[in-house]
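Q: Structure for this?
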Amino acid sequence: MLLHRTYGQRRQIALVLGLILALVLSACAPSGADDPAEPETTEAPATTDAAPATTEGDSEPEEPTDTTEAEETSEGGTVVKVGFLSPVTGPLAAIGTEMKQGWELYWEEHGVDAGSYTVETVYEDDAGNPDTALTKARRLVEDENVDVVVGPLAANTALAVADYLVQQGVPNFHPVTAADDLTQRLANPLVIRVGAMTGSQATYVAGQWAYDQGYRKAITLCSDYAFGWENCGGFVRTFTAAGGEIVDQLWNPLGTPDFSSYATQIASSGADVAFIGSSGGTDGTNFMRAYEDFGLGDQIEVLGNCCLLDQATLRDAGDIAVGLRSVTYWAEGRESPEVERFIELYDEAYGGIPSLYVANSYTAAHVFAEALKASEGELDPEGLVAAAREVNLEDSVFGPRRIDEWNNPIGNVYITRVEQREDGSYWNVVEETYEEVSQFWTFDPQEILDSPPYDRTNTGQQ
Amino acid sequence: MTGALGTKAGRFKLLGLVVAIAAGWSVPYVFSNYQVSLTTLILISAMLATSINFMAGNVGLVSVGHAGIAATAGYGLAWSFAQGHGLGTQLLIALALTLVASFVFGLTSMRTSGIFFLMATLALGMVVFGLSYRMSAITGGENGLSGIRRPELFSSYWMYYFLVLVVFVVVTAAIWVVTRSPFGTALRGIRESESRMESLGYNVAAYKLGAMMISGVVAGIAGVLSVWLMEFVSPASAGFLRSALATLMVILGGVGTFLGPLTGATIVSWIEHVLSTYIERWPTVLGLIFIVVIVFAPDGIGGAVRAWWQGRRRRSDREVARSSGSAVSADMARSPGGSQGTAE
């Protein structure tokens, strides 16, 4: 049938092909096409050898994603080039976009100069896919010659990218990724978590708090993947270590549309507290719907994790959630000038109350800026991470923050309660504060590191 | 599609292949190491697409689960590497797993055709995804297995590129030979009419199983090479998206053409990895291109380019002869081969 096309149709095909070609060519034109990379000479990382002056000169006009103009950098200090990886397309696009907002917000507020350096950020989309994330990380390191990579988001993309960056000797700052292993079994001097806590860190507090409140029988419902396993692992470990009993553990697949069956199981379990380790987003909203339909609130104490009652859920289901408690390190209703200023700033720029993910990468930028202020001269990769490890924030948006020897934050964990604000929106206010919470809680770090990662068979039961 | 197998077209393809190999060999000398890595990725994607293309073009069975086979091989390699096994054992385990997975896929292809085969492969692909997601003690679950390293010899990006290039050429040549063999002819006979082949005495089920095993091994090779490139494997590599993109590559490039998978892989990978840097809505671009190709060039870009080229030549021939007439079928207008095409 292809053989009987009219002249007009053939012209159309030619036009379309031309268009595709134009798109593809315009896409591959910049960045190091003239790089005379001889295979024999590239044993050492070629990234530092390429002359930035020539490649940047070529690519500058064709890079709409570049936020910093070249002129600015000549006035400021030494340019530190940051590659920012986040999924702004694909299933994680909503979170990835908020993650990007947090980073942008910090530099808009404080300017791109930090100490004797000027921060220049190149943004890349990893689509939430490890293969794409790795290819993009390669581009950032090998073509853009970035000094640091910030991100990505999803645990599998983060672990893949961290492994590559360590081999290349490029520091990797993680704003949002919660995977325990990033700063535990796979900890590396070049990899540092600067925003989020680990998947089990805050929920260690949850188990302890529940026991201290007098609850002795618990049921858990967690997302059925690494983050949920770690969430539940933390809760179960401290709750059972204190002497509590786990009646049942339920696992919901990511993207569960209907939580009715889980709600009925929770209601009939005979437990007196239910811990919900949600992945947030629509899972959070959908759980809250079932929570209301089955009147769970009247039957059992429900305790959420960081993400069940985050802004993403509260925007949709705030009225149902009023009075519900969570265990989290991000409390947007905490009384602190730092938090108030941050919320005001975000409201001006994007509207609404910032979510956990915005706060995570805003804090990441905060720590990064402080690390730069503490550095001097030419940045060496390990030196930069070491400087970030020494950063001691007296009041970040998360409260006091410092970083442990495994490159993971130590900070406040809050027991929060959902309240309605005067303007009708909802937020989490602080009821109780646990200070100086480490990723190992009060356990011996070696004991945690020697045990296998949390999953459905290794649930942290003591 | 069968018409494309004439000798002239074959010779043209051979010439194209030689030029492509020469161009391919020069890539590390010309481009930056990122672009070499990207080309490596394209070649590997093209190999996965080739395995789908082999089934789609010859047996007429379109699969959307081949990433499952590739991932099975990849996990075999990654797991045995993590266990500290030698290279030989790693490859053996990867091969064994590939054969098992291909056999399971093959069992379904023996009994199904058309849309049913598509659904069966979709389901099997999801089974592999589910297993890799759930058996976290072996597969690392959602977090995947990281820290995998290539054999010492290929640890540099350009040596690895040459390895992948050689494997790609060998695999493509092998598939070409198989397609041209009586076995391949029988497969196309099955595609045209299963019942006729059966009545001629062919064991249709065995042929289909055989084809699936060949296709599976190619997918397995792509899976192993992919893990070596990424030095990482996670359930995403077995996911529906990977399988669907690979099938998309085949359809874009042209089902049943030899360089179609490479063309498709180049376009899809560039949009996914390069264009996405500049255009946030790259999935839209990919979708639009797919729609445009389906509407205007159902035989894929390879087929469309050929038709356009022949049409152009036909027109210029007509102009030279100062004759105008109604549209003639391309087959009839095809001029004798050997010429380099009309000059401007």
